[in-house]
Amino acid sequence: MKIENTFINGLKIVSPDVFGDNRGWFFESYSERKFGENGINITFVQDNHSFSAKKGTLRGLHFQNDPMAQAKLVWCTRGALLDVAVDLRSDSPTYKKWFSIELTSENKKQLLIPRGFAHGFLTLVDNTEVQYKADNSYSKEHERSIRYDDPELSVDWGIMGELILAEKDKNAPFLIDTDVAF
């Protein structure tokens, strides 16, 4: 397992060791021991699985306020997506900066997102599945969203064509109008 830092403190790219032969392949999608050996001590309590039928489905930008903030380990189990994390930690030197990575069922890369980030993804092909671990349970009371096209953040989604959005994402507030508290 290879764990790389990004330019945003705490945000990491995880590339698992993939073992393949004539039967297919195998990899550890998570190892508490290997994460610990790399100074990552997160206890995950919830696994989530998302399916998007159509290319151009955008989910996000989502986060949960404290005390229910969530760290996440995200990967693509089918298809391909552009995964985006936005630093919302007001005391961070990279506050309001974003990072994106293409996660695919082929490259098997993962994105480790610490608490204090908004997260979203755009499907690049039909029939895309995403799985992620979270270190805190879902809380409707603490759930928040930010507009995917907030000009203050200027996330480059590489969008070509019309997007498929949930109503909550279409109507999400801009960052300036949220009560983000990290």
What report would you give on this structure?
The chain is mainly β and 182 residues long. It has a single domain, classed as Sandwich (Jelly Rolls). The chain is built from two helices and 13 strands, in the order ββββαβββββββββα. The strands form three sheets. A six-stranded antiparallel beta sheet has the order 1-2-10-7-12-5, with no helix packed on it. A five-stranded antiparallel beta sheet has the order 9-8-11-6-13, with no helix packed on it. A hairpin with a 6-residue loop joins strand 1 and strand 2. The two termini are 30 Å apart. 29% of the residues are buried.
Question: What tags apply to this protein structure?
Answer:
five-stranded antiparallel β-sheet; mainly beta; six-stranded antiparallel β-sheet; 182 residues; Jelly Rolls
Give the low-pLDDT segments.
none
At CATH level 3, the topology is Jelly Rolls
Topology pattern, helix = H, strand = E: EEEEHEEEEEEEEEH
CATH architecture call: Sandwich
The number of distinct structural domains comes to: 1
Q: Give the N-terminus to C-terminus distance in angstroms.
A: 30 Å
The structural class is mainly beta
**Rg measurement, Å:** 16 Å
Mean pLDDT: 96
Strand content: 35-45%
Question: What spatial form do the alpha-carbon principal axes imply?
Answer: globular
Number of helices: 2
Describe the sheet with the most strands.
Answer: 6 strands, antiparallel
Strand line-up across the major sheet: 1-2-10-7-12-5
